[in-house]
Amino acid sequence: MPPSERPGATGAFARAAKGQWAFANNSAQRTTPSWGSLVEYCRSDLVYTEAGHAVAGVHGAGGWGDLRRQCTLRGTPGAEAIRLSSAILQPKAVYSPGAPQRLTTQGDTGRMAEQPIRFAVVGLGMGVHHCKDLVDARGCELVAICDSAPERLEKNREQFGARAYTSYADLLAADDVDVVNICTPSGSHADLSVQALKAGKHVVCEKPPDVTVEAVDRMIAAQQETGRKLMVIFQSRFEPIYRRLKETIESGRLGNLVGVHGTVNWWRAQSYFNSPGMWKGTWALDGGGSLANQGVHTVDILHWLAGPVVEVYGKYGCFAHEIETEDKTVAVLTFANGALGTLTTTTAAYPGLDRTVFIHGSKGSVVVEDDELVRWKIQGESKEAEAEEERQMLASFGKKSDRDATTASDPFAFATRGHMAQFEAFADAVRNDTTPPNSIETTRHTVEILTAVYESGRTGNTIRLG
Ligand SMILES: NC(=O)c1ccc[n+]([C@@H]2O[C@H](COP(=O)([O-])OP(=O)(O)OC[C@H]3O[C@@H](n4cnc5c(N)ncnc54)[C@H](O)[C@@H]3O)[C@@H](O)[C@H]2O)c1
């Protein structure tokens, strides 16, 4: 009987070349009919499917004893096996080939025997993506959803098979919810987070943590008072290229930082601001416009990479939309380490262009466009060594469309889902009682910088921070 027809089988199955069966409990793959059958597995680490998808795992003594998260690859079947990085590939579910009737999933053995951390998602716009990622995330379980709009709740209730609440208070009273994911309008994040923390829940909060520093400080105070965990979603911090760049800056290879530059040249139609709830483009709930909503990821990544900002001068205006906030900002930043920076954001660049980060130090320059590396020029022992380093970096972190089979040598060559990685890391932090990534304290400065741009634009003053 094909595994997908076996009783109780709900995930995607595929057959490996040597007759082994791999099971992957991933809804994305369940809805991807092109997954195809496995045609090969390479060394111990990887299996390729006809469609170029892969299940990465470790071929343990008991067969697929440690199957790890499946991922999408552009690699060619038969290419060199990818080196696995335990930081980004984690066990999810295993089908044991030695005992065809036994399906091993989270909760059955070893590390997977630990109870999943139970999540509830509040706000079902962006929150729907949270739900999808939580279904797939190792060590996580989606148990409830909540939205004050009944139609959104109804639409998602069946898809996720989770309990549905229109009342946030009722959700917080549920004993079987460990973590509340807050995906409501930005200016409501602090109030809802504080309520959840005080109800004994851990909190994952969408970006930005809230729209004022005062609100973020309330979140920090509630987190410290309750001892619960609080993480803010800033998925760019999980992008492999930014992680590599951060390591490179911290190791000193770029030398002293000189310039730190970010641009967000995007477009949003007026209909985006006229969407239900009408909170986007308002000061109270969006905290601004192209900077506070779209550009906030770039603000966050600039200071995460280059350290704190001590001085801000900014201007803003609204040019192509009917909203009360802005669709264009420009700012000059001075970093504590002396580097000078610029930041420009817009939602008025039709039809939507790029997002870039350009950082240069006394020993090199790096340009990242839309989270893909485009230049990596760092002084090496020779021009040839420099060119070779850039070639390797581009093969691993460059334009996805240009990556070829050589990328199979790098673990970061396959798609990652930044939210999912954060949920898994958060579940680990709850389980092990450690500080989660993107803790609320580390995101306060993001709000401090962006509100300083607005304050500077309003007053004409240069704003000192810290
Ligand atoms: N990380 C990212 O890349 C990313 C992308 C998009 C949005 N976001 C963030 O996600 C948040 C939501 O944005 P969106 O675009 O999904 O907005 P949205 O308006 O589409 O959805 C918000 C939902 O929250 C519900 N809601 C509001 N108050 C509620 C309450 N008190 N209780 C229950 N439900 C409530 C609304 O009914 C609505 O369905 C924002 O903070 C935004 O910045 C992050």
**CATH architectural name of the largest domain:** 2-Layer Sandwich
Helix content: 25-40%
Count of individual beta strands? 22
Q: Could you give the order of strands across the largest sheet?
A: 21-20-19-15-18-17-16-22
Highest CATH level, the class of the largest domain: Alpha Beta
Distinct ligands, ions and cofactors found in the model: nicotinamide-adenine-dinucleotide
Say what the CATH topology of the largest domain is: Dihydrodipicolinate Reductase, domain 2
The CATH homology group name of the largest domain: Dihydrodipicolinate Reductase, domain 2
Structural class designation: alpha/beta
Radius of gyration: 23 Å
Uncertain residue ranges: 1-113, 404-416
Name the overall outline.
globular
Q: Tally the helices.
A: 14
In words, what does this structure look like?
With 466 residues, the chain is an alpha/beta fold. It folds into three domains: 3-111, no CATH class; 115-232 and 422-438, Rossmann fold (3-Layer(aba) Sandwich), CATH 3.40.50; 237-413, 2-Layer Sandwich (Dihydrodipicolinate Reductase, domain 2), CATH 3.30.360. It contains 14 helices and 22 strands. An eight-stranded mixed sheet has the order 21-20-19-15-18-17-16-22. α6 packs antiparallel against α14. The structure holds nicotinamide-adenine-dinucleotide. The site of nicotinamide-adenine-dinucleotide has 22 residues, from loops. The site of nicotinamide-adenine-dinucleotide (NAD) has 22 residues, from loops.
